[in-house]
Amino acid sequence: MEHGPSKLIETAVVKPADVPADVATRLRSQSDTQAANLAIRLLPIRTGPPKTERMADIARVRKIIESGIGDPYKGEATFMQRCATCHTLFFKGGKIGPNLTSYQRDDLGTMLISIIDPSAEIREGYQNFILRTKDKRVLSGFLSDNDAEIVALRGLDGQDVRVPRKESRCSRRCRKASCRRDCWRD
User: Is residue 111 very low, low, confident or very high in pLDDT (cuts 50, 70, 90)?
Assistant: First the structure.
């Protein structure tokens, strides 16, 4: 039996590193046990670098920032390329992740941890959820609406998928941020 995306990975058509984390999570969460086990084998949960490596990255980036050599115009271009898909800063960017305009940019300790290890602390309202439906779909995204009648998830494309509550089977919160862990690297 073929298992769609997992088969593409197994036959090396797609590299596991090229599969976005949210897609890998959905594949591992399938109700088809055989397909889910194949995805678990091919797409193990990615762990971040050890804490010592993350702390070394933070120290290295802090040193660069504190040297005062930065160029705000190059910084804006970098933000637009790497962060604006999800985040807004001064009215530019996406609406998937938190708006960063009011973020305390003078608090380097907190800011660098958030950039280098986005799963260290996930702001309330931006946790990623997995939702299974009675027709066996597996959806993921941020909870954008949740009441007695409907569950809506906002995907990484910024679009809301609305599922009547009576058609949803279960949901669970993910412990990882949807933000790419290495989006800050050169």
Answer: confident
Q: Quick one: pLDDT band at residue 47, thresholds 50, 70, 90?
A: low
Q: How wide is the angle at C-alpha 83 spanned by C-alphas 78 and 84, nearest 5°? A: 95
Phi-psi region of 68 (alpha: psi -120 to 50; beta: other; left: phi over 0): left
Domain 128-173 class in CATH: mainly beta
Q: Where are the domains of the chain?
A: 5-42, 51-116, 128-173
- Per DSSP, 173 falls in state E
Q: What is the pLDDT of residue 115?
A: 83
Average model confidence (pLDDT) for the chain?
78
Output the pLDDT for position 90. Answer: 93
Q: Other C-beta atoms within 10 Å of 131: how many?
A: 23
Q: How many residues does the chain have?
A: 186
DSSP per-residue letters across 24-86: HHHHHT-SSHHHHHHHHHHSPPP----HHHHHHHHHHHHHHHHTT---HHHHHHHHHHHTTTT
